[in-house]
UniProtKB/TrEMBL annotation:
Top EC group: ligase
Occurrences of domain AMP-binding enzyme C-terminal (ranges): 544-626
List of residues binding CoA: 197-200, 317, 536
Reported cofactor(s): Mg(2+)
Protein name: Acetyl-coenzyme A synthetase
Modified residue annotations for N6-acetyllysine: 626
Statement: the UniProt record of this protein carries the keyword Magnesium: yes
Catalytic activity: acetate + ATP + CoA = acetyl-CoA + AMP + diphosphate
GO molecular function (one): acetate-CoA ligase activity
PANTHER family xref list: ACETYL-COENZYME A SYNTHETASE, ACETYL-COENZYME A SYNTHETASE 1
Domain AMP-dependent synthetase/ligase as annotated: residue spans: 96-480
Family: Belongs to the ATP-dependent AMP-binding enzyme family.
Length: 661
């Protein structure tokens, strides 16, 4: 684990306004502390109470937490429920049937709204369609869809019949899609003919065809195709079926299949520190409880709110804060297709104004790019829009630098809206460390304090507690309901990755470094301590990119590191040794670099493309042959090497690699 540097001390503090506090679901620090105390005092009583108050079980659970096979924790055992029914029927029964569930805005600006009742009808028809194809409880269904009401409905249709969905982000390549289809053993793929981003039509169905042709996908019996653009795509007879044809002829009634609390709701792949992405497996009851509760606590959700999370359903944020949390909470939410910069960089602000969004949740990388755009063009500056509907804002995916935080606070929130900087992960299912907007004093750049019941701590390399002010390893000391259950098909890797023996085997290892403030105990996240990069809020394993590069026939060896980047947080820099000689010609090297970038883009997806590739005759290695990534990180940043290089076998290589191509 690499060294953790200390961070500068932030002294600005923003207390919740009296007005916000008065109406907040958790009002004031005393209320927050009371919940924390309850969890400390009676851990299982606390979680049991919340589950009973928030979830609708068809069969009540008999035990809150079963730790007999730790770290394979089980929550709410003996209970049965259906996640989709907890989102749809539960709210319809409570009188919200005609409330708008989703306001969908397409890339071209067309708006479609569905009520809770209408959404249930769509979900039921699609669920019946899946059943008619023979998809059963426990079967895996891969979803490779654009942002759409149909994408959300597809996830719910799976949940409704107890099928386990695995959503693959629409930017992933055929190879990455195939890997996930093979690993899950999916029986069906739900996709669209095309997706539309920034006015461009991009393929989806043809990528599915390619993925399936790569082999190992024999379990896939059907491909269900949502007609997004109407493009002419090849339909394989007997295998492929259009969604409207499949769902159109089905009944609009579909009894939800009740499943065990622990039944897997979904598998979502995320990068780890080794080459193969990890299939993070989530549960039904525990996962849903936290998605719902954090809507109430972190987002202070009220019946009249218009909630907007800008994430894609291909990431965990889209799962918890589009597909499940807001719908379980009976919210009206905005779902959008496209990019923040089309038709112009004012899209977010324009949409907030038109749909009167009250809660807005986005990523620092989007904020940073919009700061840049609005500095260049007043018309797309947030001040050119009426953002007075907003009352709360959030940030997720990566650390938000205090400057971006302040800009967001002033220009988007009008110095009126609290910002919840929510730290969490694919593995945690929902928020872990975040301000509560009606309680916690905000400090730009800090995710502040753990939610009640989340026993987060900072420890040293042996798992020993560190005092506040000292940077270390972020862990969680007790399980929580929405935690990862296992890595699909690889329980050993689950144990090793998240409950490592080095830390005593009982602490959940987040993989991030953190420090707590000496005065108020606030957490500041200091980035990953493993070989995982965070590029525009997307997790990328350095090994994954290295494996892709060395799979190219020209490449002998590759090492990938991250470099701080103003826009994307981190940028990918690859150091490559070719099988042949390193070309002396600048132009030839640039051409090769482009070729390899394209290769990685095709192999994994555009988000994995290195920003820079440098070629060397060799890589800096210790005498025992270990690549010295620490040095490569310095070289990528353009730093002078001041570290001790005496253990280096080939110090001369540093000169060559220190220069950009
Ligand atoms: C939800 C999500 C998880 C990693 C995590 C950390 C980084 C997320 C953050 C943050 C600082 C925040 N991260 N939120 N770092 N402050 N508020 O992003 O999940 O894609 O699995 O990424 O993202 O490094 O470990 P995921």
């Amino acid at each position: 684990m690499s060294a953790i540097q200390s961070v500068s001390h932030e002294t600005r503090v923003f207390n919740p306004s009296e007005e916000f506090k008065r109406q907040a679901n958790i009002s004031g620090m005393a209320a927050y502390k009371a919940l924390c105390d309850e969890a400390e005092r009676d851990f299982t009583g606390f979680w049991g109470r919340l589950a009973n108050e928030n979830l609708k079980f068809s069969k009540p659970f008999t035990q809150v937490l079963d730790e007999t096979n730790a770290p394979f924790y089980k929550w709410f055992t003996g209970g049965e429920l259906n996640v989709s029914a907890n989102c749809l029927e539960k709210n319809i029964d409570a009188g919200l049937g005609d409330k708008v569930a989703i306001i969908f805005e397409a890339d071209g600006g067309e708006v479609t709204k569905v009520t809770y009742k209408e959404l249930l009808t769509r979900v039921n028809k699609l669920a019946n369609g899946l059943k008619s194809l023979g998809v059963n409880k426990g079967d895996r269904v891969v979803i490779y869809m654009p942002m759409s009401i149909e994408g959300v409905a597809a996830m719910h249709a799976c949940a409704r019949i107890g099928a386990i969905h695995s959503v693959v982000f629409g930017g992933f390549s055929a190879k990455a899609l195939q890997d996930r289809i093979v690993d899950t053993g999916a029986v069906a793929v739900i996709t669209a003919d095309q997706q539309v981003r920034g006015g461009k039509q991009l393929p989806l169905k043809t990528i599915v065809d390619e993925a399936l042709s790569l082999g190992g996908c024999e379990a896939v019996k059907n491909v269900i195709v949502y007609k997004r653009t109407g493009a002419d795509v090849g339909m394989q007879a007997g295998r492929d079926v259009y969604m409207h044809e499949l769902a159109g002829k089905q009944s609009d009634q579909c009894a939800p299949v009740m499943v065990d609390s622990e039944h897997p709701l979904f598998i979502l792949y995320t990068s780890g520190s080794t080459g193969k992405p990890k299939g993070v497996q989530h549960s039904s009851a525990g996962y849903l409880l936290w998605a719902l509760l954090t809507m109430k606590w972190t987002f202070d959700l009220k019946p009249n709110d218009v909630f907007w999370c800008t994430a894609d359903i291909g990431w965990v944020t889209g799962h918890s804060y589009i597909t499940y949390g807001p719908l379980a909470a009976g919210a009206t939410q905005i779902v959008f297709e496209g990019v923040p910069t089309f038709p112009n960089a004012g899209r977010f602000w324009d949409m907030i104004a038109r749909h009167k969004a009250t809660i807005f949740y986005t990523a620092p990388t989007a904020i940073r790019s919009l700061i840049k755009a609005s500095e260049a063009d007043e018309k797309v500056h947030p001040k050119s829009y009426d953002l007075s509907s907003l009352r709360l804002m959030g940030s997720v995916g990566e650390p938000i630098n205090p400057e971006a935080w302040m800009w967001y606070y002033k220009n988007v929130g009008g110095e009126r809206c609290p910002i919840v900087d929510t730290f969490w992960q694919t593995e945690t299912g929902g928020h872990m460390i975040t301000p509560l907007p009606g309680a916690t004093p905000l400090v730009p750049g800090s995710c502040t304090l753990p939610l009640p019941g989340i026993m987060a701590a900072v420890v040293d390399e042996t798992g020993g507690d560190l005092p506040n002010g000292q940077g270390g390893i972020l862990v969680v000391k007790r399980p929580w309901p929405s935690m990862i259950r296992t890595i699909w098909g690889d329980p050993d890797r689950f144990k090793k990755s998240y409950f490592p023996e080095e830390l005593g085997g009982k602490l959940y290892l987040a993989g991030d470094g953190a420090v707590r403030d000496k005065d108020n105990g606030n957490f500041t996240i200091m980035g990953r301590i493993d070989d995982v990069l965070n590029v525009s809020g997307h997790r990328m394993g350095t090994m994954e990119i290295e494996s892709s590069l060395v799979a190219n026939e020209l490449v002998a060896e590759a090492a990938v590191v991250g470099r701080p980047d103003d826009l994307t947080g981190e940028a990918i820099v690859a150091f490559v040794v070719l099988k042949g000689d390193r070309p002396a010609d600048d132009e030839l090297r640039a051409k090769l670099a482009n070729e390899l970038k394209g290769w990685v883009g095709k192999d994994i997806g555009p988000i994995a493309k290195p920003k820079e590739i440098r070629f060397g005759d060799n890589l800096p290695k210790t005498r025992s042959g270990k690549i010295m990534r620490r040095l490569l990180r310095s070289l990528a940043k353009g730093e002078q090497i001041t570290q001790d290089t005496s253990t280096l076998e080939n110090p001369a290589i540093l000169d060559q690699l220190g220069k950009a191509n």
